[in-house]
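Here we describe the complex-level prediction in full. Unlike the single-chain runs in Section 2.1, the two entities below were treated as one system.
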Amino acid sequence: MCASLLLRTSVPAGLHLAHVDTAAIFGRTVVQEAVRVERFFLVNWVLMQVTLFATLWVYARRGGRFARESAAGPIGTGMLLGMLGLGIVWLVQLPFRLLDVWWARRHGLTEAGYLEWAFGHWLELGGTFVSLCVALLVVMFLARRLGEIWWIPGAAVFVAIGTFFAFVQPYLVPTSPLHDPGLQRAVTQFERRQGVSGIPVSVEDVSGTTSQANAYAVGFRGSRKVVLWSTMVDGTFSDAEVKAVLAHEIAHHSSNHIPKGLAWFALFALPGAWILMRATRGRGGMGEAAAIPLALLVVAALQLAALPAQSWISRRMEAEADWKALQTTRDPAAARRLFVGFGKTSLADPNPPTWAYALLENHPTLAQRVAMADAWQRRQPAS
Amino acid sequence: MDDERPRLPIRIVVHDDLVRSRVTVFFRGLLAIPHLIVVSLWGVAAFAVSVILWLALLFEGRAPKSLQSFVATYLRYSVQVGAYVHLAAAPFPRFGGADGYPVDLEIEPARMQARGRVAARLVLALPPLLLATALGGGAFFGNVSWVTRQNGLGSGGWSTGVTMGGVAATAAVLGWFAAFARGRMPRGLRDLIVYAIAYTAQVTGFLLLVTDRYPTSDPSRVLPFAELPDHAVSLRLQDRLERSRLTVFFRLLLAIPHLIWLSFWTVLVLPAAAVAWFAALATARVPQALHRFIAAWVRYSTHVGAFLFVVGGPFPGFVGAAGSYPVDLVIALPERQRRSVTLFRFWLAIPALLVSSAYSFVLFVVAVLGWWAALFTGRMPEGIRNLGAVSLRYTGQANAYLFLLTDRYPDSGPAVRDRPHHEQLQLELEPPPAPTREPHDPPGIEPG
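The structure predicted for the assembly as a whole is:
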């Protein structure tokens, strides 16, 4: 019942998206290059996943011996094993990440250097280590105290932590306010049309890192915010196209997509925690440090298994935001130009392979987004 | 244990009675100027000679005796000047150096040296040079100095003379005040300076081809006679030298949870110390519960420091339990403390904190060198591990003093070895691995 409530969308139920001739819209050369670029990323992703699971499989079998490197108690040792597992995964994935950077640099998708990519994210990695430690602290503490029913309060604690981070995330990214008065006026107008108000719009400086364009909505309730990458407002896109993006991001807030995302997380967390409890039972349960290497493998497998559903939910929300944006701006031509522009700047395949679409695409494809703009236009009475 | 190991070819000899003349102490820096000029000029000459030595060793395989003696004599003289400048010795040295100086070197030059090691001497000397810079002990022929001109542009260049800075300089400055006030140099500070000078002499001797024995920083070998007096806080060292390369590689990241937890704990310890201070003023004793709480924090910070700086191998626990980590502090139960010392505790602790911060820099260098060594060999070199342990012991004692666990002042001496009756530092090493070479074989390279 919760899921059906969360799946409600303002996209008309019978909306038919017509076939789009991608070669005609995006240009044959762009499509061919995008397909080639995307294919490399996909193959690399598959190889990375295979390596990830092979590594975690070996670590699940042999990682327990690192417990002798610990003078801490069971929870501290569990933290050590968890962090080491994460570190090993980071190491084995490093070559694949570097390949990604090489390919992205080759096609002008990033300006970052190899060293910067390989080692410039230590702070981020440190943050992940800390997050993992907090997660293990919670789970192992509850498992040691409550036994096998830890997964019920455990899932609740994770949802609470996720909610907290979703709330504070807007304050963690350094941004500057959007100064363009024309765009600011448009924001106020869009907010009014979508029935929301007071959503600040900021710009995140990504110059020197990437040439791709992006925007996102973060926070909820008092911390709501829309962030545009600086590449969005550097003149590459027209004002009408940027307005389409702004309307899309505001639509995420007006449709409560972030709280809904948290609700979905809660729905997934509960069975996920239960499966984790069952899977680690043979190693003494999550209260024992020896279970942690196996737990890492199980969590990675759960994440992969949940990926199609997550992507589907995300695509549904993005489609709703696209539709609301069209309703708000009433400018399908700008939306169309925007998506075509994305195709050129991001070299995203407008029609990716089905398996990649099902697993990895968290937005409708560019072809689908263009088709939606066309469908919206068709539904308008002729004037 | 020390007797079983071959003697160092460049070793320090100390016959100093710690007594100082206040007048010469007061003017020490000025009095040393003529010696500093001579030692600088001699340093240039010794460097030039060592280039000839390098060529001779490289092509002939043996060093001309006269040239090596020239450099060795310079080395002895520079040690005597270094000891005089840093107040580790009292008498004004003889120009050119002479036998019988209270702080002197015994040198066994190696005329035959392996060509490969000679060829790569400068590269091999870089790690110990880094450590010698942190220790800052005495006179070695050259150091990179950065000169800032009036227009704000900086330039780098080589200079000769006595290096100042690091642990030795800190100890010398503090020793200057103590010796001027009391007419006597504190033994701990004197030993620390002598250690720094002795290590630097080893490094210089290695670099200038007097010997091909790689310098060791192990305090128990460099300064085997150093003693530690009884103290309420002592180090218990049971750590194996083997390291897991994986935990070494990710050491900094693995330490993050501990650093966060330590920060939180520190926030709680500060008000606890304030309460303890009032209690100690009123009753001359810190309440047992507070003592236990602060002692656990001091122990925990030592555990975390040992792990972070690769001095210790395993991942520590989070509660600072006594005996839970192989690099541990043994802290005595609460004892009566002098109220006068308690009243001015913070101000009295400042010199100890200065030495502690100098030791911390050494610890940082130890960590960098040890990290690389442990990553490649899977083993922490004993010398730098022990130096790191001494640094941690001092920092632990300084913290214990500042946070009212004891009113005994920290002992800055770099002693490591367990000594009967009066030494508190308990070194309980694992059984040493089977020797890989005979004592009389050419010495191998031991990083640090």
